[in-house]
Amino acid sequence: MSGVLCGVPIVEFSSFRNNQDDESWEKKENFDRRSHPINIAPLKGAIDADPVRLKVLKVLAEDGEWVTTADILRAARHVRAIVGAVTIGTILNGMNDLVSSRLIISRTSLTSGIDWAEWRINPDWLEPTRKLLQMMSRPKFQPATHEDFSGKVDRLLGDTT
Predict the structure, then answer these.
(1) I need a surface site. Which of 95, 96, 115, 158 has the fewest CB within 10 A?
(2) Residues 108, 106: Cα–Cα separation, whole Å
(3) Residue 11 above 80 pLDDT?
(4) Per-residue pLDDT, 26
(5) Which CATH number fits domain 42-106+113-134: 1.10.10, 2.40.230, 1.10.20, 1.10.8?
(6) Residues 121, 104 contacting (CB under 8 angstroms)
(7) Is the dihedral of CA 95, 138, 60, 36 positive or negative?
(8) pLDDT tens digit string along 117-151?
(9) What would the pLDDT profile of 52-64 be if each residue is shown by its tens digit?
């Protein structure tokens, strides 16, 4: 005890803290903003299978800002002529279901309806999504064919050096 204040003993707790810095007792605010990690790998199969999904994801990942349904429709119709707002909503909600998260978020006014909704990739997952799209845009591996080796085998086997 360090003393008495108004009849109540004052207890010094510094010995219980092992003389650690005060900051070790304070709550740290430098934590990851993502509430929980998500696996965006399942998106690869979905966008491989459907070029419209790929185009929609590319439009959303382009600048990371809000994109209207009309803008997404315009881009999707370059890939497939008959695409509507319901299809776009289904694609976007399906991508969220694939990754079991809110990868793609939306906003709309109560008076505008789904045709004027705006969509974007969750800012926490924008870079991983861009990396996935970049990975998918790389040229695919082409296995060697018999024509690639014609003449080369004879030349290699006939080389006596």
Answers:
(1) 158
(2) 7
(3) no
(4) 43
(5) 1.10.10
(6) yes
(7) positive
(8) 899 999 999 999 999 998 887 776 666 666 666 66
(9) 999 999 999 999 9
Let me know: does 38 contact 100? Beta carbons within 8 Å: yes
pLDDT for the residue numbered 27: 39
DSSP symbol at 139: P
Are 120 and 81 in contact by the 8 Å Cβ rule? The answer is no
Q: Any residues with CB less than 8 A from the CB of 114 and at least 6 apart, and which?
A: 69, 85, 86, 89, 108
Name the β-bridge partners of 126.
none
Q: Cα separation of 52 and 55, whole Å?
A: 5
Half-sphere exposure of 77 (CA within 13 A, CB side): 11
Query: Which amino acid makes up residue 46?
Result: A
106 vs 68: CA distance, rounded Å: 9
Q: Are 70 and 56 in contact (CB under 8 A)?
A: no
Contacts of 10 (CB under 8 A, 6+ apart): 1, 2, 3, 4
d(CA 132, CA 77): 23
Name the nearest CA neighbour of 47 among 7, 89, 98, 13.
98
